[in-house]
């Protein structure tokens, strides 16, 4: 059992006063009034974040924008809505349109480019790689 697993298991048995102490030692801030259940969840998150890393910067940026009421007008790869992706595959023209929430291919909506690549090829592909798009690249 890893140290993280031991610490997470201990949280379940920890008394409320000890939970508050643990929260303050991890977050180094004034503790908001929360139930012990929520304190356990926040502490578990922080412990896992320390051990395994936090959210990617791109996710933090999107969360910050959402909290400020800004809307993201791009689909998964940062491509503007309406962008057309075109690729030849085994003699067939593959054309995809970027939607606000996904992609359109052959009059069907897909959640990801990888789903479309799998649909077209019958094999698992990275959608951005299949369409020749690097992460964060604008078309």
What does this structure look like?
There is one protein chain. The chain is α+β, with helices and mostly antiparallel strands and 139 residues long. 46% of the residues lie in helices and 15% in strands. The chain contains 6 helices and 4 strands; from the N terminus they run H-H-H-H-E-E-E-E-H-H. The chain has helices at 3-13, 16-27, 36-52, 57-67, 113-121, 127-130, and strands at 84-89, 92-99, 102-105, 108-110. A 4-stranded antiparallel beta sheet has the order 1-2-3-4, with helices on one face. A hairpin with a 2-residue loop joins strand 1 (84-89) and strand 2. It is elongated and about 65 Å long. The mean pLDDT is 85.
Classify the secondary structure makeup into a structural class. Answer: alpha+beta
Sheet having the most strands: 4 strands, antiparallel
Estimated helix fraction: 40-55%
Show unreliable segments.
none
Intertermini distance:
47 Å
How confident is the prediction overall: mean pLDDT? 85
Question: Count of helices?
Answer: 6
Which percent band covers the strand fraction?
15-25%
Radius of gyration: 22 Å
Succession of helices and strands:
HHHHEEEEHH
Enumerate the strands of the largest sheet in spatial order, edge to edge or round the barrel: 1-2-3-4
Overall 3D shape: elongated
Strand element count: 4
